[in-house]
Design a protein that fits this description.
- The chain is flat and about 65 Å long.
- The protein starts with a helix and ends with a helix.
- By secondary structure, it is mainly alpha-helical.
- The chain contains eight helices and no strands.
Amino acid sequence: MDINGLIEQYGYAALVIGSVAEGETITLLGGVIAHQGLLRFPLVVAAVALGGMIGDQLLYFLGLRFGPTLLQRFSKHRKKIRRAQRLIQRHPYLFVIGTRFMYGFRIIGPILIGASRLPPKIFLPLNILGAIAWALIFTTLGYLGGEVIGPWLHNLDQHVKHWAWLILVVGAVIAVRFWLKRRDDKRE
């Protein structure tokens, strides 16, 4: 089975799992793959939205259950944590939806929201709405980027072979240099 067949068969599941853990890169890649016609755009959006929502929901429950204990470990960031918690209390809707788009808040944001005791009945619908908006934006960016990346992907096998050879040659040069240096050190 070739790589395209694997993508067509397991792509949506991989997008769900990948977007639980990582996020933007997987979502952009999903858009590129949709542009190539291997996966359907609406299903890519749904898959990454589902994965992003599940990931943030799990982190929220982690913060709800263990938040104060977890946050004590970040004592040097206490001021920033308090500021974020005040923002959550003042603007919960914007914070829940926006945390997904804030650099550095992808993991800690939902934990902070859970630790702030924002009720699940407020968090869940906002999490779903934020996940859909996030998935739509980043998948679309990936789809549009597929126009640029697409021609390169068609030659991916050749690129992989070239990179493999380059890595092999660089590794051999480093190994020979290391061996020569050790040999010279033993002579001294």
